[in-house]
Amino acid sequence: MTTAPAIDIRGLTVIRGKQEVLHSIDLQVSAGSVTGLLGPSGCGKTTLMRAIVGTQIVKSGDVRVLGDQAGTPALRRRVGYVTQSPSVYGDLTVSRNVQYFGSLYGKSGADVRAAIDAVGLTRYADQISADLSGGQIGRVSLACALVADPDLLVLDEPTVGLDPVLRVELWERFADLAKGGTTLLISSHVMDEADHCAELILMRDGFLLAQITPDELRAKTRCERLEDAFLELIRTSPVGGEIS
């Protein structure tokens, strides 16, 4: 029995102003996986994620998420999205922020505490969010998404500004979520995080360069370091197209 992909995108094209920023993207993301969306800043990662969660106007193409059209009301309780800019209430404590979002999904106090603990903010639970550092506020946003226990979690560069120890802990948490059946799509411009992913979606200038595993990328480019492998992929791929 073949499991349907959690995300299925066909021919996605997005135009902003007069510029085409995504060029006929085709990709599928397996259910229950950790998939990395990688590429330099400005390559279209955030636009692609916005199309997946249904907040981006598209010119053409089909985007299906968990079997439904992206952005449909049926997905509101099934998809979590953490943006690069934290979405929290600065005048509320960490606990109150997470409790508020948890209440929208009927979650208990235990669920709220578990989400806060998962992002390493237990000792700051009663602190006003506006008094936290930028990295800590980003973790509050992540906890607000985790508390809903979504089937799909879309994270836009969630580890930016975090110390190395916490980054490792978060990736371990992401792996545990995937083992429990959650699908995670995580963007980053840091190639050393790619080894935490089962599969990689590599982008540049609005084009999909490749959808590939870390080991396959190393084998294809004969580069051990993933950053070197990505640069080699760019050099050997045709302009405006996916590598063969």
TrEMBL record:
Keywords: ATP-binding, Nucleotide-binding. Gene3D superfamilies: P-loop containing nucleotide triphosphate hydrolases. One of its GO terms (molecular function) is ATP binding. Residues 7-230 form the ABC transporter domain. This is ABC transporter ATP-binding protein. It comes from Rhodococcus globerulus. The lineage of its organism: Bacteria, Bacillati, Actinomycetota, Actinomycetes, Mycobacteriales.
